[in-house]
Amino acid sequence: MAALLEVSHVDVCRGETQVLWDICLAVEKGERVAILGSNGAGKTSFLAAVTGAIPPARGEIRFDGRSLAGMRPHAITGLGIALVPEGRRVYKEMSVRENLEMGAFPKRARGSLKETMAHVVELFPILAKRKDQPAGTLSGGEQQMLAIGRALMSRPRLLLVDELSLGLAPMVTKTIYRTLSALEHDLTILLVEQNVEQALHFSQRAHILESGRLIRTGDSADLMADAGIRRAYLGM
Ligand SMILES: Nc1ncnc2c1ncn2[C@@H]1O[C@H](COP(=O)(O)OP(=O)(O)O)[C@@H](O)[C@H]1O
Ligand SMILES: [Mg+2]
Fold first, then answer.
1. How far apart are CA 47 and CA 14, in angstroms?
2. CATH of 1-78+188-236 among 3.40.50.300, 3.30.70.1730, 1.10.10.1100, 2.60.40.3360
3. What is the pLDDT of residues 179-232, one digit of tens each?
4. Which helix H or strand E contains 210, and what residues bound it?
5. Cβ of 16 less than 6 Å from ligand 1
6. pLDDT (tens digit per residue) in 23-77
7. Which of 10, 12, 13, 14 to mutate to test the pocket of ligand 1 (most atoms within 8 A of CB)?
8. Which ligand is nearest to the CA of 86?
9. What is the pTM of this model?
10. Domain ranges, ordered by start, for the chain
11. Neighbours of 106 (CB within 10 A)
12. Beta strands at 205-210 and 32-36: parallel, antiparallel or unpaired
């Protein structure tokens, strides 16, 4: 059976500059996978290639057996790929409820808006409490919950999360990871993080990206136990 996401030999350029080289990876249905790398490694650029925001210069990305080549971002969203963007990017003037409703724009999600909304506020009860507040009044952690909730509103099959923990207190990060861990296992999650420890705890498998190239892939538990990784990425 084909993997849900198959990335083969992908190069990505931003303007004239190449930022990713020969990326190959696969994410199986239901898997939780992390891509780890420091600032500037190319993590966000990789997610931009998957969502169609920056189509690959070379190589191919397939989702559920189908090539994404030439597809516009909204069409890719429509297939069931949702991104929680770096820096959350909630609509600050709009209410929490409106932000969530915006997430349900793909056709596959519109009919079940009410049920999905109920599910999302069950995952993040604080969003129900804040539903009529402008999103800009929420704390950083609450905005991250809202950004995840908004992505879930599209009823994705693959959830991409860019720097979940960035700027958040460790306790808040932990809470959000715990919630993501409890999500239905037919939802596949690919996240990119600088926070190596949390991401390795969360994921089953991880890839390490350095200066635009994948240099290492393994089971997260093995990577966590690896002395070289602990020295280089965990400061131990
Ligand atoms: N809008 C942009 N235009 C040109 N280069 C960019 C742009 N955004 C990021 N880059 C460059 O692309 C490389 C990868 O960046 P990025 O994908 O944002 O890495 P990460 O998310 O791992 O921090 C970096 O060298 C960065 O300077
Ligand atoms: Mg980034």
1. 13
2. 3.40.50.300
3. 999 998 889 999 999 989 999 999 999 999 999 999 999 999 999 999 888 888
4. strand 205-210
5. no
6. 999 999 999 999 999 999 999 999 999 999 999 999 999 999 999 999 999 999 9
7. 14
8. 2
9. 0.96
10. 1-78+188-236
11. 19
12. parallel
